[in-house]
From TrEMBL:
Residue ranges of domain AAA+ ATPase in the record: 37-179
GO BP annotations, alphabetical order: DNA-templated DNA replication
Disordered: region residues: 398-420, 531-551
Family (UniProt): Belongs to the DnaX/STICHEL family.
GO cellular component: DNA polymerase III complex
Name of the protein described by the UniProt record: DNA-directed DNA polymerase
Organism listed in the record: Jeotgalibacillus proteolyticus
Keywords: ATP-binding, DNA replication, DNA-directed DNA polymerase, Metal-binding, Nucleotide-binding, Nucleotidyltransferase, Transferase, Zinc
Bias kind Basic and acidic residues: ranges: 542-551
Classification via SMART domains: AAA
An MF annotation (GO) of this entry: DNA binding
Entry keyword Cell inner membrane: no
Catalytic activity: DNA(n) + a 2'-deoxyribonucleoside 5'-triphosphate = DNA(n+1) + diphosphate
């Protein structure tokens, strides 16, 4: 029989085998026992976290001959048939290759037929975000009200690409990245049953390289088994994953801390000669520095370390390096890693970063040694000036006048610190063409827009809008008032926010609006100026007609006649 990869042989057949997703499996098990099965599910999360496996287990559980059960028995005819794919009641589709309207219409036509052997006909659609817009529209009504014998399970790695109309018709379960601890435990279980000898440190290296994916971890473990002779050693795992051993990273950090530029560059040269990737090496240095900082500030959180095992050499290094130095390491290395993504000379950037780190330490170190005499002299000078000041007070000299005079310019400079100027002309244009329907439409869907941004993993952008509200709108633009000027400046300079917000509003309202941001103080000034000029223009055209108060006229435009109550 042909050899099968480990991730296929050890694919989960029960909910208990799905690693690190207890929040999902427990909910599904309770629903199965209580017979509260939904007609549609959405499984979203990173690759290799168990989405499709959980879908097949759920399909077996609902069709098991012993249902209702928490786990499929995997012994009855139906469970065995679903496992080997011989029962036609469970249909698996790859939306990447079946993303057209015709394929979805074919599903829509066939769902009305009863299942052949099981209680339910289950459609598992993998990578559902690849469906075209027409295919989603064709699926919409069937997904909302399918026959009682049909269950849809949609799986995706990019839920933000799925229309909200589809998401709202499904029970959504978010699969998270599996922790290194859980991955190591599962691999050790598989290795013990497969009679494979291994070094536990090698398992940790593979788990870190998998980045939260169980399938990736088993693929790397399979590769390490093939690479090794009789036992999967730490060196085998480092070679297969392209990672760097902890001893080499410790030597490199020691060189940086000791300001040994030549030694640090020689270590990097040796690692690159072994085929190590500069970007991956930079990432390992960031994680190692992070673990040093964690141990330096909270030693009791050793289980949270991602890159190292805390041995005596690591502990000694953590005691020697100050937290401020580690902040500098992480900051410089993080900027270097970002720059590496847009260059063909990643090695050069890494070498420059190492030299910069060493030079940074050379500047910081003399503060504690050579400058100590200067500090003592400074203290003496301050004491001398205090004595002279005391003498001046005794002589009757007003010593408080000069500080007040010097403080005045500073206050004036701080008052002029505003650096955001709202586009008054554009705001007045919106006010001139403002309609009640447009502002009402935007305000009614404002909460839905913020929820949509949160679901699309734009929470950092939503935070800027917590103190903002739309105050006026025309057919193609609306004025967004911010309580704080800094929030307005950050929002109006954020290209992602200016690009995503009109798109989401268009999906919710059917109209596309551009955004004009304004701080609250500037909004009040611009609105008052607009009302005054509006009143003057009406006077020049009215030729003696009695003119209504401009505030009342503006209120009538914004809220309508029926909601306006004028009291003297």
């Amino acid at each position: 029989m042909a050899y099968q990869a480990l991730y296929r042989v050890w694919r989960p057949q029960e909910f208990d085998d799905v690693v690190g997703q207890q929040h999902v499996t427990k909910t599904l098990q309770n629903a199965l026992v209580q017979e509260k099965i939904s007609h549609a599910y959405l499984f979203s999360g990173p690759r290799g976290t168990g989405k499709t496996s959980a879908a097949k287990i759920l399909a077996k559980a609902v069709n098991c001959e012993h249902a209702p059960v928490r786990e499929p028995c995997n012994k009855c005819t139906i469970c065995k048939g679903i496992t080997d794919g011989s029962i036609p009641d469970v249909i698996e589709l790859d939306a990447a290759s079946n993303n057209g309207v015709d394929e979805i219409r074919d599903i829509r036509d066939k769902v009305k037929y009863a299942p052949n052997e099981g209680r339910y006909k289950v459609y598992i659609v993998d990578e559902v975000h690849m469906l075209s817009t027409g295919a989603f529209n064709a699926l919409l009504k069937t997904l909302e009200e399918p026959p009682k014998h049909v269950i849809f399970i949609l799986a995706t790695t990019e839920p933000h690409k799925i229309p909200l109309t589809i998401i709202s018709r499904c029970q959504r379960f978010d699969f998270k990245r599996i922790t290194s601890h859980d991955i190591v435990g599962r691999m050790m279980h598989i290795a013990d049953h497969s009679e494979v000898e291994y070094d536990e440190k090698a398992m940790h290296v593979i788990a870190r390289a998998a980045e939260g994916g169980m399938r990736d971890a088993l693929s790397l473990f399979d590769q390490a088994i093939s690479f090794s002779q009789e036992r999967v050693s730490l060196e085998d795992a480092l070679t297969v994953t392209g990672s760097i051993g902890q001893d080499r990273l410790t030597a490199l950090i020691k060189s940086l801390h000791g300001q040994d530029v030549a030694g640090a560059l020689e270590t990097i040269e040796a690692l690159l000669q072994q085929g190590k990737d500069p970007i991956r090496l930079t990432e390992d240095l960031i994680l190692y520095s992070r673990d040093l900082l964690l141990y330096n500030t909270a030693p009791h959180l050793e289980e949270s370390m991602e890159r190292v095992v805390s041995d005596s050499e690591f502990k000694q290094l953590a005691d020697d390096i100050q937290a401020e130095q580690l902040y500098s390491y992480i900051d410089i290395l993080n900027k270097t890693q970002q720059e590496m993504k847009f260059t063909n000379h990643a090695r050069t950037y890494l070498e420059v970063a190492v030299i910069k780190l060493c030079h940074t330490e050379q500047k910081a170190q003399p503060v504690q040694t050579e400058n100590m005499p200067d500090l003592q002299a400074l203290i003496q000078r301050v004491q001398q000036l205090e004595g002279e000041l005391k003498q001046l007070k005794q002589d009757g000299v007003n010593v408080s006048a000069q500080p007040e005079a010097s403080a005045a310019p500073a206050k004036k400079s701080s008052r002029g610190s505003k650096d955001f100027k709202a586009p008054a002309g554009r705001i007045k244009e919106v006010l001139k063409n403002a309609t009640k329907n447009d502002i009402t439409q935007i305000k009614n869907r404002w909460g839905d827009m913020l929820d949509s941004m949160n679901r699309q993993q734009l929470r950092s952008l939503t935070a800027l809008l917590n103190e903002a509200e739309p105050v006026a709108a025309s057919e193609d633009a609306f004025v967004l008032k911010f309580k704080y000027e800094i929030h307005c400046k950050m929002a109006m300079e954020n290209g992602k926010l200016l690009e995503s917000m009109p798109v989401i509003l268009q999906e919710l309202t059917g109209s596309r609006y551009s955004i004009v941001g304004v701080p609250e103080e500037q909004w009040l000034e611009i609105r008052e100026d607009f009302i005054q000029h509006q009143g003057q223009s009406e006077d020049s055209e009215g030729e003696g007609k009695p003119k209504e108060d401009p505030f009342i006229e503006e209120a009538r435009k914004l809220v309508g006649e029926e909601l306006l109550d004028i009291q003297d």
